[in-house]
Structure formats: structure tokens, C-alpha cells
């Protein structure tokens, strides 16, 4: 289906959102992804003109899809994407994927996001908030520096306005930031989980992990070690990071 670029927005240091107007209404569930194919590449890319990206908007935000990504200079695809003029048409294929929230999935849920892995959780939390669903969510969101926290203001507002949404953000390299960080530090490791979810092995929650493959593997292993059975874990690996 044809998607028209209607808006671009900086989300955080290095992260940009692209808003697309579909030629016809498309139904999708929060957390799903699309294949996005650029009409041609301005900069060469050995992987070609197609990538998968999560739809970071929620189905409650009608009329557009939002794609949020970290722009990388070494990616010809992303350099081309970042320079597309507004009004450009591209090809979208989807929705795809099973890393999604159904309204009947009442949880409670714990979300582990590594960097840009926040995109499906942005879609899901926005959906829960907009529909005022009674679904408890605890988001644990890790970034290198505070400047790289995408959707920060929005996430802080959700947490402040909705007793069901709990958020903990951690920063792994506060010394590399210009901003003074007084929150949690470190990666999503045993120490951080011990602080935030000391009795994780006995919780009745569903655990969701999204981010670069190495992060997802590490958190999956850790949850196993802490007594969480694999049937309670859902993962989405952002191959390519
Ligand atoms: C389900 C899903 C959802 C995603 N959602 C997002 C999102 O919301 N935002 C976002 O920024 N990214 C998302 N990604 C990752 C995205 O598709 C890109 O791969 C990533 O952004 C890196 O793109 P790139 O052009 O910078 O690097 P690339 O040029 O794509 O990749 C860099 C390196 O990784 C290798 N590589 C990449 N992909 C694969 C693969 N599939 N199999 C084997 N090797 C590979 C390449 O060979 C290359 O060496 C998602 C991936 C998946 C699978």
C-alpha cells in the first residue's frame, strides 16, 4: 500500500519519527510492524531499500502511521529516508508480527525496553491510555544517556496521570551526558531488576522484552536465571542493531 510522508519529528538525540498517511484505512494492533520500501536509494545500501519497523503510533491515533528510528550515518537506507521530502510516497506492507497487545491481555505486564526498542511499547501504552483500559503496566526503559530517551516527556506524563502505568528509566553512561542524571543508573541487569522487582520469580506478570538482539538475549537469560518461566516471556529482537 502507498504511504505518503506527511511529517518528520525529532524524538531524542539521534532518533527521528516519520509520519505516513496510508492510502486507505488499515487495521493493526499495538506493537505490530510494517515493511517499508523506499522508491529508490540516494545512498547505496547492501541491504537494499526495504526494512521492517514497528509502528510506534497507536491504532487510536487515526489517519497516520508513525515510524521511529535511530538514524545511522553508515546506513544508506536511513540516510535516504532522513532526506525524503515531505509528500514522498513509499510502499508499506503489513501489519505483521505477534508482539502485540490484545485488549483481553489484562496483564499485569512488565516491559523491558532497550533504546529504540521502546517503539512497540510506545504504541501499546498510548493505546492503553487512550482507551482507558484497566491494564497495569510497568515499563523499565534503559538508554545510554538521558538525551537519547525517546518519547520521554510523553512517557513521564502517562506515568503521572495514570496509576496503572509505572515507569522506571535507567541510564547506563551518565558520565557521557551534559545533563545531570539523578535517576537509576546501569543497564537492565541483575542489580537493576533486584532493585525494581526483588520478587520477580514469583510475580504473576507477563514480561515483554524489546531492543537490539544482544540486549534481548541478555534479559531473557537473566529472567530465566531469576526463576521466570519462558511461557511468561515475549520478545522482539530488532535485528540490524
Ligand atoms: C520486528 C522488527 C521491528 C523493528 N522495529 C524497529 C523500529 O521500530 N525502529 C528501528 O529503528 N528499528 C527497528 N527494527 C530494526 C530495523 O529493521 C533495522 O534493521 C535497524 O533499524 C538497523 O537498520 P540500519 O539500516 O541502520 O542497519 P542495517 O544496514 O539494516 O544493518 C546493520 C548490520 O546488521 C545486519 N543485519 C541487519 N538486519 C539483519 C537481519 N534481518 N538478518 C541478518 N543480519 C542483519 C546487516 O548485515 C548489517 O551488517 C526492527 C526490526 C525487527 C525485526
UniProtKB/TrEMBL annotation:
Domain FAD-binding FR-type: 1-102
Annotated InterPro entries: Cbr1-like_FAD-bd_dom, FAD-bd_FR_type, Flavoprot_Pyr_Nucl_cyt_Rdtase, FNR_nucleotide-bd, MRET, OxRdtase_FAD/NAD-bd, Riboflavin_synthase-like_b-brl
GO molecular function: oxidoreductase activity
Top-level taxon of the source organism: Bacteria
Listed CDD domains: FNR_like (cd00322)
SUPFAM superfamilies xref list: Ferredoxin reductase-like, C-terminal NADP-linked domain, Riboflavin synthase domain-like
The protein's name: FAD-binding FR-type domain-containing protein
Originating organism: Candidatus Woesebacteria bacterium RBG_13_46_13
